[in-house]
Design brief:
heterodimer, A: 196 residues, de novo design (two linked rop proteins), rod-shaped, B: 664 residues, Zincin-like
Chain lengths: 196, 664
Amino acid sequence: MFPLIATLAVIAAFVAVGIIIYNRLTALRERTRTAFSQIDVQLERRYDLIPNLVNVAQRYLEHEQDTLTEVIAARASATQARIEVNGDPSNVEAVSKLGKADGNLGAALGRLLAVTEQYPELKADRTMSELTEEVRNTENRVSFARQAYNDVTRVYETYRQSFPQIAVAKATGFGPFVYLETTADETRERVEVNFS
Amino acid sequence: MDYEQLQASAKDENRNLLLAFAAIIAVVAAAAAAVVTGTVWGTLRLLELYVLADASSKSRVVAESELLTGRAPWGWVYLSVFALTAGVIVWVSHSRERALIAFGGAGIARSMGGRRVEAVSTDSAERRFVNTVEEMAIAAGQSAPSVYVLDREHSINAFNAGWTHESTVIGITNGALLELSREELQAVAAQAMSHVFHGDARLNLRLMALVTGVAGLAMVGEDWIDRARPDSMREDEGVLPPLLVAGWLLYGVGWIGVALSSSVQRSVARRHELLADATAIELLRQMEPVRDALRRVGGHPSGGRISHRRARSANHMFMVDAGNRRRGGVHPDLRLRVLRLDARWTGGWLRPDTSDHVTPDGPDPEPASPFSPVAGSVSQVPALEPLAPVFDAMTAPIAGLADGLGPASALIAPATMAMVLDEVELPRPTVDADRARCMIVALVHLATGRAPSTESVPAPCSPDQVEAMLEGLRRAAATTPIDRPLLLADARSALRGMGGTEAFVQQAMVGLRAESDLDQWILQRLISGSFVARPVQKKLRSLERLRSDYAVVLSAMVAFGGSNTQAAFDVAVARADLLGLHQRGPGKLCSLSKSLDKLAAMDPADHERALSGLAGAMHADGASQRSEFEFIEVVRLVIETRETGSAEAAASKDRSWKSRLRSA
């Protein structure tokens, strides 16, 4: 009798631990998805702002068409990449592509903002200065949303890949999430503008 | 530096400090229980020895074995008293905590002169800060709190207030808004969000409330000392030594407990600041903006000084010390904070940053100077400041804010008042003494419902004149409630310096049934407070010494309106900064009059607190009754006529009161 009870107790303990791990994985996964959707909200805001920014800047930056074109092209790529992700952070390939495209857009915007600093009349334009603040705000929102997503992804991945969680995760279909990494372009903080 | 490790070690130290706090409270409760139990035992023993001294030797032996001090289970008595004392501390703490929670983050911000910034503010500096707060909220995974600006403060400081994540607000001084760069504003927002993230405000609130609970023991001791000492106000002039000794011991134990627990509370608060700095760095992923924001505080002429009177009691909510102390108190030493962030710092502070200045919208402001009024000098606080809390309550509708004053909001709108005065034919600015007298009599008849007659109308007024005035008041009352304080203030202006006024109003008030009707009691007090001389109070008393009379007055006021009188009472007690005040049950108007008259001896330094408490009670339920509004005026007239013994002092303050009502 005793061996039967002991066996049942051990099985029950395993099941209980498995349930606890499963629930924790579920909670962490939902947190990660929520953090990713927050990025999506900020990205949409950013993409909506860019056309206004380019329209205002075009009046003054006749000789900086390359910079403006770069921004427009980067926006188009990032918008496409976002559509492909479709709100699913577990789509590894699509998320990586979005990270790269968004990083390129951020770098292009940074170059555009750096260029506007060189044009006093553009800088003094009230609409432009408000837009600049909005762009800066939006860039920061995207950046911090990405940071928050990476933080919760780190917690999720650390938990998921630890033992014995990894066994439960593989058995119940908890896949990995991808970090949104910065690109080499994006890490540049200042761009030298050549007026020659 | 490993910031995660810094956070982890700060959290561990926090836990140890909290355990120390709990131990202090247990020790204080044990000491207080020992005092009380010892006093009771000692008193009984003395009584028994006194009785035994008269007994015969045989009966003395028998009596000794029967002595209560030998038989009673003093161990259980001690434990019971200990449990009771600990219970009292917890109960007072809980009451205090509940009163402060009722205030909410927005209420605290407004009480410090804060103005809410709309999410779509058109001011570029405000917009910039709102944006940084939203950014940090995203980084912390929290919802963005409301943002407030302290327009009058030109130092560099920020605060977070509120006891739950939902009710938390973040505020910043005008100086910080204009002088910090965007990155430094981010750092300030991150530091404030860190406090929200860690729930520091709620923990701090609990600790403060516990200190209040311990201080309650000292208040009990003080009360026993008062009761045990001879006092000319009491009929019984005997001294009660056991109560006196116990009172002093309890007073001492209480204040030692307060000193120790306050010290721990300050240590916890300092640790919270260091933890918030570290968490801010984690949110920003950079150290420099946090370091530079602190260096800007150090380099500013006013530092973090807040001129508002409430800053003292809310100091723990600020990012740096609001009294601009660099060390001590509830904030770590500013230098220490910078050094913890950057060990290579050589001690230099940063001057105001002009490279990233945001020009405020509108005409360019004059540059701030340490010697100009805008530098935050306390001496430049406007003269109207002492009455600000009550003033705020009454002028909010004039400023166009729907602040929930309800029916009272129509009372003080200038257009409405002009209509009332036109109806009663009391045109401004010219005021007619005869009409003023008739108006006083008409107000009495309006309250009593009696028709004017030759018996009820004193000379030089006639019943017909009073009837005409009454008719005007009734027509005006059909559209808007009558503002009796304002009408009486106008009458006082008209009758100033005229002989026989006091005798006239005494006759006019004859018909009032002030003992049994609250509305008529209020009118009587308004009239007598405006026109009848009072004896000059020679001995001033603090609000703490008048607490029981203040409790009677406050309890009467909260009973006027609103369903949650306890909540209103607690809010008022918090605003008046009184510890352990208890709400009284409904009493008679004559008792209310006695307590109110005793408040005439209040120290002028406490007038503001007392009125602020009453205004808080008026606001607490979100709507104001006309009777509450008039009641505050009654109290104000009582406490402000002590200076000269006549209504002149109240009249001079009334002029400034009226001009603010007109100009707002």
